[in-house]
Amino acid sequence: xxxxxxxxxxxxxxxxxxxxxxxxxxxxxxxxxxxxxxxxxxxxxxxxxxxxxxxxxxxxxxxxxxxxxxxxxxxxxxxxxxxxxxxxxxxxxxxxxxxxxxxxxxx
Length: 107
Known about the structure:
The protein has helices spanning about 5-10, 20-45, 50-70, 80-95. It is mainly alpha-helical. The protein has one domain: MFS general substrate transporter like domains (Growth Hormone, Chain: A, Up-down Bundle). Helix 2 (about 20-45) packs antiparallel against helix 3 (about 50-70). It comes from Salvia divinorum (Maria pastora). It is found in: Membrane.
């Protein structure tokens, strides 16, 4: 997943939030790297190298599925068109939401 945030950051965030979102993605990327680096040897020692790598394969497969399902294709689109995709997506999902918009907070 290392190169994904850098590729996605350059295309999907609205211009107003690009810096903030890029920083958040970089932070998540480096924290993920830290977790893997700190836990891999312990997991490999406890379960063996094969199962330890299979855990990482499982994480990578879940991450791939997440990206394939939730990240829109932006090839050949301008920044304005990508912003429009992100603006239309919440409106499209609003009709599917189980909880209607409410003006008063739930108790």
